Structures are given as structure tokens and as C-alpha cells.
């Protein structure tokens, strides 16, 4: 069922109509088969890039659409409702552009952002390491300045788009000064010494490649340093605050898709002479699912509107990520229950939705970390 949205302008309504059409006609028909085959749909990222959707929240000066986050996130939700791997990929790409767009020098922005936002390049965000996930300040991938190049050694873990991205926004250690010793490099995929390990074998989002990225004396030109040495952790944490809203929107899209599937099935499945949707046990379950989806949507939109107005939104971002991803896990699980035995088969997409709902509770900061951020904000208020 189409979502009843309150959009701020006629232009944004036209944009969402375009996104809905692309999601319905190009993404959804391919999602199940490509996920089953673990195919990465690079052609679809090219398509949405040419449609102007890879740079929605960024300046028109560099080829972006200059849309408020309130609009960008609802577009992202529509894409994720059709195909979660593509939604997450768009969110990751948007976050990968954040460092350059917000902290880069003007010359760097003019040089690289047009291609990054225009659809010809796809990004990845390389922060996590095997022993530095939630504790980002503990990362150990090291970059040593040698004349006009940084020589980078180390391993990044759990990188979305590993091996298929064109650039990697990478956090590296340039000194031993703890969190103050981390810097940000914009690494081209053709960099000598950079390679991807074999893909992780995941329970969900199998159409989206995730792997380690290996830096072995990788030589990165010094002019690809973003924001100055020592600025990397600040850039990373700022990026994540916005990136969490992207994941929240994706989770709501996934939950909406599960709700739609459950409602449709319940209206068509007959037991004891009437549709199962007429039984109170199912009515209450569907009602709770709808309440969860709409509450999560309202939560991420509130955070987005605060961001658009230049207000602090870190706590609201963490709340949105927590509420939306926990909600998606519950709604997708309940959707399997509504379909009964059919929901446990691959003849229907709800089992895939349930598998895909797990990882949003983990990436962009686990939901346990979100609770820490929220609690710390309350104590420091």
C-alpha cells in the first residue's frame, strides 16, 4: 500500500513519485532472484545515479539535488522497501560523500564531488576494523607520510561495497595520540596495494558485497587527506550521526514492505470460511505492526527535521536508529508469523526480510551503543 507522506514542497512530491516508480518497476522485480544468486546490482546504482538520486542531500554546485534530509530519507525508505541491499548501498554511498562535502577543501570538492554525486562513481566507508568496531578510536590501520604520499598498511573490516566501490572514505592512524591521531583519506579503488578479501558469507543482504579491505603499502596521494591530520575521528562521528538516520529510514522501508506483504496475505488467506485478517488475533498483530512502522517513521523524520534546521540531532539520530531497527526486527518476524508455514519458505519474501532486518541493529553503531549515546546525552543535559 502506498505510504501517505507529508512532503514539504511540490518538487519533493515529484521526486518521491519518481523514486517510487523506479523502486516499483526496476528494483522490486529483481530483488528476490538477485539476492538468491548473491548478485550485486551495479547497473541499478548507475540507473539511480543518472536519475539524480546518489547526491540528494548535497549541493547543486557539485551535481547534488540539494534536498533536505527530510526528503532524502523518505526517498531512501522507498528504495529500501523495494530492495534493502540497494537502500543500504545508497545510504552508505551518501555517507561516503559526507567527509568531502562537509570537511574537504573547496579545490578537493570541485575536483571529486561531481563524479561522486553524479552517478559514475560508487563509494564505500572504511572505518571499522576487526578489533575496532564500537571503539572506533582504537583503529590501527596506519598511514605514514612519505614525501607527497601516505603509505597505508592495515585491514578494514565489514566494508559495504568492498571490491566494487570506486572510492573508499577511509579512517587511518597518522599518530599515536589516541582519537586525536586519526585522519581521513579519500582512497581511489585503483590505488596500488589496495585489495579486497573474499566476500563475507552473510545471512542477509546477500546482494550487497561485504568484505575486508587490505592495505599493503598502499600509496595514497597526500592531496587526498580530508580535513587535516587528526580530524578523522571527528569526521567519522559526524558522518555516523547522519548515517544512522539513513539506516533508520532503510529499516522503516523494510518493515513497511513486510507489513504490506502480511496485510495482503491475510486478506487473501481463508480459514474457517473467512479471511484470516478478520480474526482478532491477526487484526491486533497487524495493528501493532502498523503502529511500529508509523512510529519509527515519525521518529526518523523528527530527527531529520532537526538536522535540516541546524539543531543538534545526535540523540534523536540514535533514538531513530534504535527504534527503527528494533522495530523492523519485530515487524519482519511478525510478518513471517502472519504467513505461517508459507512465511518460512522462499516462495514469499518475508523470510528474506526477517534475515535482512538483523544487521541494521548492528551496523552504524550497535543498538547497545545507541543506548549508551542516548543515556550519556540525558546525563549531560
Automatic annotation (TrEMBL):
The organism's superkingdom is given as Bacteria
Q: Domain Acyl-CoA dehydrogenase/oxidase N-terminal spans what residues?
A: 9-119
Q: Which family does it belong to?
A: Belongs to the acyl-CoA dehydrogenase family.
InterPro entries registered for this protein in UniProt = Acyl-CoA_DH_CS, Acyl-CoA_Oxase/DH_mid-dom, Acyl-CoA_Oxase/DH_mid-dom_sf, AcylCo_DH-like_C, AcylCo_DH/oxidase_C, AcylCoA_DH/ox_N, AcylCoA_DH/ox_N_sf, AcylCoA_DH/oxidase_NM_dom_sf
Record SUPFAM superfamilies: Acyl-CoA dehydrogenase C-terminal domain-like, Acyl-CoA dehydrogenase NM domain-like
Named cofactor requirement(s): FAD
Q: Which PROSITE patterns match?
A: ACYL_COA_DH_1, ACYL_COA_DH_2
Q: What is this protein called?
A: Acyl-CoA dehydrogenase
Which molecular-function annotations from GO does this UniProt entry contain? Answer: acyl-CoA dehydrogenase activity; flavin adenine dinucleotide binding
Q: Which residues form the Acyl-CoA dehydrogenase/oxidase C-terminal domain?
A: 230-378
Q: Which Pfam families does the entry link to? A: Acyl-CoA_dh_1, Acyl-CoA_dh_M, Acyl-CoA_dh_N
Q: Which UniProt keywords apply?
A: FAD, Flavoprotein, Oxidoreductase
Give the Acyl-CoA oxidase/dehydrogenase middle domain ranges: 124-217
Amino acid at each position: 500500500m502506498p505510504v501517505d507522506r507529508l512532503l514539504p514542497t511540490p518538487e519533493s512530491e515529484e521526486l518521491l513519485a519518481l523514486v517510487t516508480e523506479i523502486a516499483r518497476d526496476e528494483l522490486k522485480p529483481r530483488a528476490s532472484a538477485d539476492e538468491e544468486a548473491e548478485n550485486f546490482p551495479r547497473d541499478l546504482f548507475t540507473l539511480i545515479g543518472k536519475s539524480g538520486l546518489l547526491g540528494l542531500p548535497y549541493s547543486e554546485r557539485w551535481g547534488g539535488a540539494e534536498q533536505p534530509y527530510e526528503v532524502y530519507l523518505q526517498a531512501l525508505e522507498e528504495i529500501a522497501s523495494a530492495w534493502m541491499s540497494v537502500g543500504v548501498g545508497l545510504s552508505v554511498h551518501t555517507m561516503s560523500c559526507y567527509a568531502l562535502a562537509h570537511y574537504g577543501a573547496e579545490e578537493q570538492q570541485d575536483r571529486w564531488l561531481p563524479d561522486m554525486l553524479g552517478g559514475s562513481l560508487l563509494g564505500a566507508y572504511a572505518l571499522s576494523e576487526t578489533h575496532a568496531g564500537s571503539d572506533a578510536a582504537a583503529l590501527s590501520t596506519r598511514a605514514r607520510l612519505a614525501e607527497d604520499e601516505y603509505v597505508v598498511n592495515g585491514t578494514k573490516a565489514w566494508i559495504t561495497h568492498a571490491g566494487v566501490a570506486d572510492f573508499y572514505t577511509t579512517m587511518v592512524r597518522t599518530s599515536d595520540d589516541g582519537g586525536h591521531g586519526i585522519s581521513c583519506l579519500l582512497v581511489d579503488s585503483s590505488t596500488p596495494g589496495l585489495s579486497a578479501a573474499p566476500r563475507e558469507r552473510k545471512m542477509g543482504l546477500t546482494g550487497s558485497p561485504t568484505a575486508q579491505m587490505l592495505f599493503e603499502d598502499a600509496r595514497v596521494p597526500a592531496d587526498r587527506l580530508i580535513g587535516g591530520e587528526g580530524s578523522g575521528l571527528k569526521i567519522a562521528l559526524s558522518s555516523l550521526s547522519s548515517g544512522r538516520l539513513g539506516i533508520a529510514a532503510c529499516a522503516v522501508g523494510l518493515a513497511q514492505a513486510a507489513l504490506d506483504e502480511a496485510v495482503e496475505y491475510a486478506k487473501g488467506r481463508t480459514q474457517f470460511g473467512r479471511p484470516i485478517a478478520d480474526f482478532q488475533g491477526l487484526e491486533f498483530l497487524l495493528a501493532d505492526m502498523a503502529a511500529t512502522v508509523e512510529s519509527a517513521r515519525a521518529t526518523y523524520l523528527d530527527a531529520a527535521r532537526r538536522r535540516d534546521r541546524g539543531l543538534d540531532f545526535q540523540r534523536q539520530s540514535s533514538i531513530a536508529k534504535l527504534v527503527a531497527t528494533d522495530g523492523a526486527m519485530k515487524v519482519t518476524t511478525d510478518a513471517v508469523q502472519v504467513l505461517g508455514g508459507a512465511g518460512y519458505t522462499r516462495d514469499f519474501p518475508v523470510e528474506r526480510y526477517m534475515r535482512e532486518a538483523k544487521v541494521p541493529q548492528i551496523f552504524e553503531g550497535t543498538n547497545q551503543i545507541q543506548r549508551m549515546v542516548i543515556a550519556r546525552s540525558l546525563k549531560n543535559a
